[in-house]
Amino acid sequence: MSVYLRRNFLLSFLASFISLFGSKLLMISYAAYVFKESGSATLSAIVFAADWIANLFVGIFAAQYIDRQNAKTLLIKLNVAAALITLLFLAFLTPGMFVGAVILVFVRSLLKSAVSNARVKALVQFFDERETDLYSPVFNSSLPLALALAGAAGVFILKFVGFTAVVWIDASAFVVAAVLTVFVQPHSARLEDSLAASRAAGRRGSLSGARDALALMARKETIGTAVFYIVLSVTAFQATYESLITVIPQVWFHWGESGTALFFTFESVSIMAGIFLYQFFSRRELITAANGNAVNLGAVTAATLCYLAMPAARGNLYLCVALFSVVVLCGEVVWVHQFKLMIAHTPDAQVSSVVGVQTAIGYSLMAVFAFVFARGMDGIGVAPSVYADIALVVLLVGGWELLLRGRLRRRDSAHPAPSLPVPEDVRTAN
């Protein structure tokens, strides 16, 4: 890898990570603050829901616009705007301003979601096709990694410094991300091709990009499967274990904020381990097209079994953290593998639209899962809620795999492989 390429990748990755870190820091800190003051997992889940559901609007209505833009210029503008909006939170720090604070979280999340879409578009404007395929798993992992580290840092800052410091650090992160993006040099040929392809059709309705993306998902099994498993990983796994992080340390082990920070720290370590393991085996061609589905199902199975065993570890903090870490690691392997496939099989002109729809579906359902799961923990308890979630995972994965195999069998029956011609000498002999 050349020095230029390392510099370009490092700058773009750091800008993406710092921007996402900033977007998550305040939201997670505020959710922890609400739970501490009210003791309600439901109110805390509302904060997460306000953040996640913003992805629905950007993914459906704005993704096509993002596909037509220069990602570098757009990322700089969005990060600066996010920094300015974040500073408004200084007027909403008292407990009585909960409704206003949630509205502000939603507005910031609109900008954050646009940044997430633009950074994916940057993958096909900053690098050539080989580099995009190589970097996409690591680049995409900046999102869950930023979320985990923001959780650990946010809880620590909230406890020992205060909420005002969280707001200033959050705004500063967006400014730093904008500055780093200034020094990124896009791949000129790929940038021109990307813009030309996305603008060739001219201006269309705001929903046309989402419709085309949905049609592409339905037409290509690889993209449809990738979207399904990405959505599964952020709903049935991530949405529920993020909710558990705010509850388990206090309800099971009485550790308070320190326990929450501990779990967020292990989440970040597990995410990095998942990225490393996937890249290690993938670059040595041990994860290929032939065994990729087996790797994916193996990771889903391992995560499900560890999640199923977690309530049994209620009296053992070490075992609970270990099981939680394996769930996160396996979920990360599923995410990066399917994201890589999705980017590799999506035309450059539709990258933002496809990722936007996937994000809209995933994070909207994530908000629903988090809210329902939190209500379940408040109502029937932690363990029954986990068991119900596991039953849903088994049902969804089994149903999808059966549906996919049935579709492939019908397609093979409709288009049988042509028979090979019989050589002349064989026909003569017969």
TrEMBL record:
| Entry keyword annotation includes Magnesium | no
- What main location does UniProt list? membrane
Arranged from A to Z, the UniProt key words for this protein are: Cell membrane, Membrane, Transmembrane, Transmembrane helix, Transport
By its UniProt entry, which Pfam families does this protein fall under?
Answer: MFS_1 (PF07690)
Task: Give Gene Ontology CC terms.
Answer: plasma membrane
Location(s) in or outside the cell: Cell membrane
Q: Note whether Cell membrane occurs among the keywords.
A: yes
Residue spans crossing the bilayer: 9-35, 41-62, 223-241, 261-281, 293-310, 316-337, 349-374, 386-404
Task: Report membrane topology.
Answer: Multi-pass membrane protein
Q: Give GO terms: molecular function aspect only.
A: transmembrane transporter activity
Question: Which named protein is this?
Answer: MFS transporter
